[in-house]
Amino acid sequence: MNRNRTSRWQHGQWRRRRAAILIIGALFATSACLLCAMAVDVGHLAVSRGELQRSADATALASAAVMLDVGDLNDQPDPATVAAHARTVAADFALLNPCRGVPLTVDRNENNSPDGDLVLGRYNSETGEFNPNSTRYNAAHILVRRDQHRNGPVPLIFGGLLGMRAVNLHREAAAFIENDIRGFHIPEDSLETSKLLPFSLQIDLWLDRASEALDQFTHDRGNQSVSSGPDGIFEISLFPSRLAPGNFGTVNLGSSANSADTLRRQILHGPNASDFSYFPDNTIQLNDNGVLMLNGNTGVTASMLDELEQIIGEPRIVPLHATVSGQGNDAWFEVVAFVGITVMDLQLTGALHNRYIQIQPTYTCDIT
Question: Are strands 118-124 and 234-237 parallel, antiparallel or unpaired?
Fold first, then answer.
């Protein structure tokens, strides 16, 4: 065998193999660079989506949070003011939550078109339906976008290598605030307590005083029979007169044999799971006809003074009743609604006609 010939053949074959390896290596390197570029842009878009979602969530929550209308406390809601405030807050919070450093703007959608970026309306938590045509606002739906129409598309870092320089993104969020409270629930093994107070107020008195307070706030704050606060919020007495013989509006939120000690505990800390166990499914709520019958108690005593003084200024909840029948411990209150209040002042000693618990409407948040 000719050694030189064999060496030349082997040398030529190695050169061809080396050229092939270089080509394959170049292809792999290019592919790896493109994959890395894609990974960077995918991560960039993921962060962008997260920031857009954060902005949408914050905007929706902030918009819904300001929908509590002070006018509702006086039965004189002002939908236009509520809507304007909600839209302004939404716009502010969108700007406070940028996407990739770009401050975000939202379309205020003043006409509240259902197809708009910011849609206000009413959400029914029982049916799961959102009504954009209702002006009893309690919900907001928000679309935050970065596209050619608003805030500009999100630019890609290496997308130009693949012919894609920017991407349109949008995220949605919705939030609502529950203000049609039908009842309260505490699971039997829970340590939570409710903010319900064991007192009931006549609903006509509540509404009448609300109307009077609004007129009083507008025309003459000097009337001492109804004291109106900011925006016409009123103060009334929790039990201004005897409701039924032997009863001043105190109700049993639990056992019909509630003692003064139980009432004092409920005033200070609220009813607990044990109290709720006396109601079906551990739930104190209006039935399908919008009524809850609560048994009466013999009433307010001076022994509750300390507990009531301790909760002055704290948000609480009281039932509103339409009618009362019976007397004393046999009295029954036809409860038709619940309202948030705060105790302002009280007097539980002296002549009966001089005793009172002065309350003022307020918004109250209860986790039960």
Answer: unpaired
Distance CA 91, CA 108 (A): 7
Residues 41 and 353: their CA atoms lie apart, in Å, by: 76
Question: Tokens 């290496």 map to which residue?
Answer: 158
pTM over 0.70: no
Bridge-based pairing state of the strands 234-237 and 356-361: antiparallel
Tokens (6 digits) for 67: 């929908």
Rounded CA separation 117/112 (Å):
9
pLDDT in tens, 110-123: 999 999 999 999 99
Over residues 219-263, the pLDDT tens digits come to: 443 433 333 343 445 556 665 444 555 566 788 998 887 678 888
State the Cα angle at 292 between 287 and 297, rounded to 5°. 160
Dist. CA 168–CA 157, nearest whole Å: 14
Distance, CA of 199 to CA of 192 (rounded, Å): 20
Q: b/e for 169-188, b at 16 or more Cβ within 10 A? A: bbbebbbbbeeeebebbbee
Residue 4 dihedral angles phi and psi, to the nearest 5°? -65, -40
